[in-house]
Amino acid sequence: MTAQRVFDLVIAANRLPVDRVVGDDGSSEWHRSPGGLVTAMDSVMRHREGAWVGWAGETGEAPEPFEDAGMWLHPVPLSEDERETFYEGFSNDTLWPIYHDVIVPAHFHREWWRSYRTVNERFADAVCEVAAPGAKVWIHDYQLQLVPAMVRERRPDVRIGWFNHIPFPPVELFAQLPWRSRILEGLLGADYLGFQRTPDAQNFLRACRQLDGRTTKGDLVSTQDPDGTGRRVRASAVPISVDYHGLEELARTESVRERARAIRASLGDPEVVMLGVDRLDYTKGIRHRLKAYEELLADGTISSPEVTFIQVATPSRERVAAYQHLRTEVETVVGHINGAYSAIGAPAVHYLHQSYPREEMAALFQAADIMLVTPLRDGMNLVAKEYVTCRHDDGGALVLSEFTGASHELRQAFVCNPHDIEGLKQVMLHVISLPAKDKRRAMRALRRRVADNDVQRWADTFLTNLETAPERPSRPTTK
Ligand code: GDG
Predict the structure, then answer these.
(1) Per the record's keyword annotation, is Electron transport included, yes or no (predicted)?
(2) Probe residue for ligand 1, chosen from 14, 18, 39, 103 as the CB with the greatest number of ligand atoms within 8 Å
(3) Nearest C-alpha to atom 9 of ligand 1 is from which residue?
(4) pTM of the model as a whole
(5) What is the pLDDT of residues 58-67, one digit of tens each?
(6) DSSP β-ladder status, 131-140 and 7-15
């Protein structure tokens, strides 16, 4: 047994920042796990001491808690059934669609909800085990919305914050959830609730008012704990960002710059390289950008290989049916475009259903003249900010969907509505033909914006908001 340690800062997220990778010889190693939350929080936690509570990514018994890169990792177990019902089911097939404008239908199953509650209880227990008296507990994302109230019930001494990485839906969509009041109650266990954009915080406040008749004033909601104590909870926007300095430094290394040149050379040095980088997810608008590219090729406005498109589609949630359908659709369209418009040795679309190291991503960003970020809905979209960060040469151009959180900050991006294929084509053509000096001016402004608002600033702001949330915590209790 590992000795129990306690910490003043505890992070709880569905996944730990590492995955166990088992080699052919049966030996196992921990590798960094993919996704926006881990990318952001990993760099935040490297500058702070604390514990991270999360699932290690494999079902069955959880590994013993261990230290990795100066962080204390406390694994929470999930059974095979819970992976299907809590993770793939309620989290990714009920909440994810509802919170992303129901781009695909949401599925409601009572046994999925029961499993969600059970797993949230387990996370709350784990958090309480590692939280020191009076600790700050920072809970993340839609998979753990009941944890704030569950932790408060067990440990009234700790400060509880929750941050939503994805959008919070309009009340008309949130209202569809049969368990909507339970979710609001769960969240209101927190002292502070952080959202990507002000409209997300407003959607939450409106849900509290309209669905549960709670009183709100400004960004505060009044609530009552089970013991009758009245409290106010603050809900406001604190937009996430990237590790600007760390990533820029990586992008400036000679090996990454050399790799960027090599990527362009291996494509035959096209006039224009367009790039998409996404988890293979139906929210990301991958089909829409492929359609726009295909139509431009079909009507002869552009031609391949002069204009070449690279799409990195990182494997994601491969056991959920909607993701399997999306993969089939995307691969069919890519096959169709390549069949019609490629030359030997020069495919029109380079489709990469793979995951790459950070260095390769930085090189790809530098190799791309136009970055296409076209989600139908996205909490923030870190890829947009990473692209800008890597362009230390002030080169490149960012095409950005108005339905991303990032578009609320990155005002100098070339904005598109991905549903409007004609409009998307026009934006692509506009950027292709725009004088370089205009694109450089836009890129410089974008880079300043991200440099001034990096991920450390985001974490500092969140933790300050948590610290100064309206009600003081009750006296620390000894365990
Ligand atoms: C959620 C919200 C919000 C992707 N492929 C590879 C790779 N990635 C990295 C990207 C980026 C991250 O994964 C993806 O972040 P996004 O923000 O684009 O999207 P989600 O995964 O949907 O993230 C989102 C985010 O949480 C943070 O709050 O912005 O709205 O949906 O960092 O670079 N990284 C590497 N290889 C890959 O193949 N190394």
Answers:
(1) no
(2) 39
(3) 35
(4) 0.95
(5) 899 999 999 9
(6) parallel
